[in-house]
Every structure is written in C-alpha cells, then in structure tokens.
Design brief:
The protein is built from 4 helices and 5 strands, in the order ββαβαβαβα. By secondary structure, it is α/β, with parallel strands linked by helices. The protein is globular, with a radius of gyration of 15 Å.
Length: 126
C-alpha cells in the first residue's frame, strides 16, 4: 500500500449493520470531510463497523473525525466498533486515551457481529 494514498473507503450496509472498509491516510483534508459526511448519510444503523486495518497514517484530524462519527452514532443509538487497527493506530488511541472511548474489535468479533445474536452458529451432526 502506498503510505501517501488518499483516504479510500467502501460502505456496505447489511440490514442494520454498516461496515466501512478504510484504507490510505486518515488525515485532515477534503477526503476525511467527505468520509464523515458519507457516514452521516447512513440511515438505519445499529452497529457501525470501521475496518481500519489498511489505514497507513492517522493524525489529529483523523482522530477528531472518528470522535465526530462516534457522536453521530450515539445520537442514532448505534455502536461504533474499530476493527483491526494497526499497531501505530492503537498507539495513537492509547496516547490520547481514546482507547477507552472506542470499542476495538478483532476480525473474528466483527464477523460475530455480522452474524448477529439472532443467528447462532450451526453445527452439522453426522
């Protein structure tokens, strides 16, 4: 991945779960503002999953936008989950004490969310 690539994202809505795959630079600028506006257009949402595993750079603008997205989600009675943040991303969250504000999940946890509580795993019986 090019470290200096603009923020790219893809939004997929599955019932009341929105999954946003992010890659590139989550830094102050027009791309980050557009990202926030796109998130705020999501209608019915119970859980907003932000897969940040491919984010190569994060600055104060990115952290601020994450907080704005979290506030928007709270107003919609939705939860925000950050999935698989890279080590530098986790360090930024810890250094700013935002690791206690955001729920950080693994890919395995995110898959469980997508399955939903009402769809338990099924096992074949031989």
């Amino acid at each position: 991945m090019n470290r200096y690539m603009e923020l790219q994202y893809q939004v997929e809505c599955l019932q009341d779960v929105a999954v946003v795959n992010c890659s590139g630079r989550m830094v102050r600028g027009a791309a980050l503002d557009e990202f926030r506006r796109r998130i705020e257009k999501i209608e019915r949402v119970r859980v907003l999953v932000l897969d940040v595993s491919e984010v190569g750079q994060l600055d104060a603008g990115g952290l601020g936008t994450l907080l704005l997205v979290r506030r928007w989600a709270t107003q919609k009675n939705a939860k925000v989950k950050l999935v698989n943040p890279p080590p530098f991303f986790r360090r930024m969250l810890e250094a700013t004490h935002l690791n206690s504000v955001f729920e950080i999940s693994s890919l395995k946890d995110a898959i469980a969310i997508l399955r939903g509580r009402e769809c338990p795993q099924r096992f074949a019986v031989a």
